[in-house]
Amino acid sequence: MTKKKDENFSKKQVQIFKKLEDRDEDDLIDKTIETIKTSAVQNNRFPLEIISDDIKKLALLEYDISVDEVEQLIKLISSLFKTLLLSAGYEERKIRAIITKFRDAGRRSAPWKPTSSRIPGRPQDGKDGNRINRWELPGDHKFYATQVNATLVEVKYFLQALSMNGSPALPDNSIQNSLIWLLEHPVKPGIYLDPIQLINIEFSQLIDSARTIQSGHLIPLDRGGTHIPQNTFLMLDRSNQIQGNQTLDELLELMARVVKGYHEKGRI
User: pLDDT-based confidence at 127, cuts 50/70/90?
Assistant: First the structure.
């Protein structure tokens, strides 16, 4: 009985810590925005212009970016994202939810223990308060990623979101072409396609039904894939279901066989 109480107390501590960590990260973004707003007034410039210039400088480093520099980059990218969406009239509550979603899918691990500490025998989920920074896991763990890679993945999610159909457009001469080395295309509304179905993803869907937009790996982590920018993409939940635990090549091969079989049977 005492052991169960201790476990419950420990789990509550973890959940409280995660909430405090989220609040600290959100406060850091807000402080960054306020500092930039002050600088903008002093220099007669727009806040987004100042944020963009700072991002451009860090983007020149590409994959040679250091841990300290990538921490600065994610702070600036999330600040740009929030500032842009607020100016476009989106609710702060929904913006914070997306920022947390990308943080959980980028720098933090997915549920990583085999069973829940809340419900014996059940798989662990996010309510267990189990998400930790990926670089704190053992190097051979499937969810492990270096701090630089995990943070760049998170940066990429923000950029993919701003490239969805109907997303608010960045001002001219912003960071549209500064991170092509990471994103593989400019940051421009309507240019990003779901990597499985090759169709547009609506930005409004991310805002209003965030759970229907998921993060995925073209080579699944269970199949030897790693959490690096080249392997990570936002996708529709239906696409994630279609892919399952297959690589993209395996999925395409399966789909080709299915279509061929239906043609041969005269069913299509």
Answer: low
